[in-house]
What does this fold into?
Amino acid sequence: MDIKDDTWFKDLKRKRVSGPEINGNSYRNYGESTKCVHAGQYDDPNTNAIGTPIFQNSTFYLNDSVYKAIEEGSTRDSFIYSRYGNPSQWAVQEKISSIENAESSIVFSSGMAAISSTILALIEKGAHIVTSRDLYGGTYNLLYEDLQKYGISVSFVDMTNIKEIEESINPKTKLLYFESLSNPLLKFAPIPSLVKLAKENGCRLVIDNTFLTPYNLKVLDLGVDIVINSATKYLGGHSDLIAGTISGSRKLIDQIWPQMLKNGGSLDPHACFLLERSLKTLSLRMRTHNDNALELAHFFQNREEIKKVYYPGMDSHPQYDLINHLTDGKFSGMISFEIIGGDKMALRLLKELKLAKEATSLGGVESLISLPFNTSQASLTKNQKKSIGINEGLIRLSVGIEDIEDLKYDFEQAFNKIFNNN
It folds into this structure.
């Protein structure tokens, strides 16, 4: 075909629509809890079951409509093979899109599958990425260790310093990648300024919103191109599944979907069922996470055993005004704090707690506590840890939904034991 003859393109009938959708009712004009419960749920016409069934199958019958979809390149909107799409995936993706105010979403087998597929889909050889020094370890390793193999360069900056970010952008910069709240010091990405920078420089802006979740902040509404969540954390919320999600415009999500197929990061039907079930209570859980964390942060601030508290909902946080404005007073369930006596006393504290469980990960209904120096930042040297603010005695706490008075008592009894029995 002569490339000057665009008749074939003009004759194409297919238009981009949101989805793919199994329900077709986005519930976007409803409240957060209503969307969490109802969006994406598939009501089976044969059984009248309340709740989406688990479509535990690998393949589907082929027919004329499927062959036509293959021919037209619209296979994402058809059921062919579960790695390409499964009713269980469609249901939970539709729910996520409604919660995120997105045209389309994809669920992945892990947060890292979502991150790697998104980054690889949006850049090409010779491209440049600007990102934060305060990144989740898996993301940092991908950007620092692996992308250079593909001829991709990366600049690591202070995520709160817009001037440094702007000065790091060059003509080859294709992607700005940041986390809305950093781990473990809970720095906040100045998203409105990042959106402006991305538009001015023709870059895509990707935000990992795992720590805040779409309940606290809908970053797509601010102009972000793609939002990523490790659904293992708050979206799943019960410490019983591994998953990741991305959401954005149908055009961009369609661009990332083939990369997911090549990477093999499709989420299995049973995990989709668990995630959709968990999302039904996301609003209820996040309210309690937020409330408990805010009260516990003030409790820690008044304890003589604690040197410093990091929490975005306290006016001592350097970006409190911006966070409070954008989240309307919803600050996440994550707290970090430094204990007197350094790492030695921090280790002792973890052993004396009854309710907060010593474990990695976060966002579960139970409180989880860990030390960055021997978990998320264990691979860094002492100087590297110090340079990014990982000081002696730093503790990260994912506040659960337990009764707040029980949580405060648990920490009080642990503080009393380790400091009164030195």
Summary: Residues 1-12 have pLDDT under 50 and may be disordered. The chain has two domains: 20-280, 283-420. The first strand starts at residue 104 and ends at 108. The chain is about 40% helix and 15% strand.
